[in-house]
Design a protein that fits this description.
two-stranded antiparallel sheet; binds iron/sulfur cluster; 13% strand; four-stranded antiparallel sheet; 43% helix; 428 residues; globular; alpha+beta
């Protein structure tokens, strides 16, 4: 490989408040206009005809299954999640009702972008951006809860602990994630108090309670680009970013999407695609709901996550996460190569019952490993009822099948959605 031609530089603020700004070089062969990665008409069409729904509802059948598998396979992970869920309970409640808080000051009507940005950095957020709140990304279940009078989205990324993250998949990494969620809740309370004091309203999405997917708005506000691993790759900490959005009616100026070269870089890199233990990541992007993205195969991911502490190998092995975007892009410009690719430092990981996997080696799982219920719990119960009826030959057997169906359906409807993975899947 050889040195690449420089296309353009992206100037970004330093990693933490007070740090010098950085210049990220984007090689000419990696340039791609962000506007060409979205089709607005398609996003609108899918939103209207096939509205988004929370995974906790759309895939509720596997949530309970995942919990049972995790309890058997890794009870210490269950214990850790339970601890964090308990600690997060007040925060979940606060986030859910944050839109009901009343402004405490008098609004001036002036543009407060600079003041909000500075306040957010001062509090400890690592990336801050502004964009239009795109209501096409609200889950069906949330439509009644999201305020209609808050047109702007403040996108806020918080860095998760570096050292813990490099041990993925592990309990240590899950602690890093749980601590980041707790910190997000603390910071959001402070920022919302600030917005309310300026005389404006705010409503928080994340941690633990989300209006819908947040990455599209982070991309629109120039805070990174979507990686093949399905995660936001932000300039300073790649996918080691925990995301939050605060909706507001304060007057702000919107940022613009930025071409960091990530879209095409992923096409050359492919490390997460090659290292995923479940072979759940697709190397090639396709058009899905108006966005050009690599679609993750959920059925191959959840069984791995359930057994191996939430997995996250796709986060760990990403060079942009491990080394940062600037060193990764500097290296690409200089050599045409992917920093760390092919080295154990970047690509190796360990699974407790399977051992250590250096570059080129992957664990093998049988078909049984991936067998899990898919879709909604209710649909699953109806399917079971139909099968039971087909097999029943007497009136008594049919009544038993009916009784089992009724009990299971009542239980499912009462239960709502199952909380898994530290409450991140909470949908009701
Ligand atoms: S979490 Fe694990 S199984 Fe799922 S996509 Fe990432 S690496 Fe693959
Ligand atoms: S590992 Fe490589 S291909 Fe995967 S998201 Fe990171 S940069 Fe893109």
């Amino acid at each position: 490989m050889a040195r690449r031609l420089l296309g353009h530089n992206v100037n970004r603020r330093g990693r933490t408040n007070g740090d010098e700004s950085i210049e990220i070089p984007v090689a000419k062969d990696l340039e791609k206009d962000p506007a060409t990665m979205r089709r607005e008409d398609e996003i609108t069409f899918y939103n209207r005809e096939y509205p988004l729904e929370s995974f906790a509802i759309a895939e509720s059948a596997s949530a309970e299954w995942a919990g049972t598998v995790r309890d058997e396979f890794s009870p210490e992970t269950t214990k850790l999640y339970e601890k964090f869920q308990k600690e997060m309970e007040p925060a979940i409640d606060w986030v859910r009702h944050s839109g009901e808080l009343q402004p405490t000051g008098q609004p001036t009507g002036e543009d407060v972008t600079v003041s909000l940005r500075e306040k957010a950095y001062e509090l400890g957020y690592g990336e801050v951006g502004f964009t239009r709140f795109d209501r096409r990304y609200i889950y069906q279940v949330r439509r009644k809860d999201v305020r209609a009078d808050l047109p702007h989205a403040i996108c806020l990324a918080l860095e998760q602990d570096y050292v813990g993250t490099q041990t993925l998949p592990s309990l240590e990494a899950e602690v890093a994630q749980g601590e980041a969620y707790k910190r997000q809740a603390e910071l959001a309370e402070k920022l919302v108090a600030h917005i309310n004091a300026l005389g404006y309203s705010a409503q928080v999405s994340g941690p633990t309670w989300h209006f819908g997917p947040m990455i599209p708005m982070f991309v629109e506000s120039g805070l990174g680009q979507l990686g093949v691993n399905g995660q936001l790759l932000s300039p300073h900490f790649g996918s080691r970013a925990r995301l939050q959005i605060i909706l507001t009616n304060a007057k702000v100026t919107h940022d613009k999407p930025v071409d960091y070269g990530i879209h095409k870089f992923c096409e050359v890199c492919q490390v997460c695609f090659m290292r995923c233990p479940g072979r759940a990541i697709q190397g090639q992007r396709l058009w899905f709901r108006g966005v050009e993205k690599a679609k993750l195969i959920y059925k191959r991911c959840r069984p791995v996550m359930a057994r191996y502490s939430g997995c996250g190998v796709c986060m760990k092995v990403c060079p942009i996460q491990k080394y940062g975007l600037k060193p990764t892009m500097d290296h690409y410009l200089e050599t045409g190569e992917i920093l760390g690719k092919g080295t154990s430092n970047l690509e190796a990981y360990e699974l407790p019952d399977k051992g250590y996997f250096r570059p080129g080696k992957l664990p093998v799982f049988g078909a049984e490993f991936f067998r899990m219920p898919v879709g909604r719990t209710e649909d699953h119960i109806v399917e079971g009822y139909k099968e039971g009826l087909a097999e029943a030959s007497t009136k008594e057997e049919r009544e038993k099948v009916w009784e089992k169906y009724r009990e299971s359906m009542e239980k499912a409807l009462q239960q709502g959605t199952t909380i898994v993975d530290m409450g991140m899947d909470l949908a009701n």
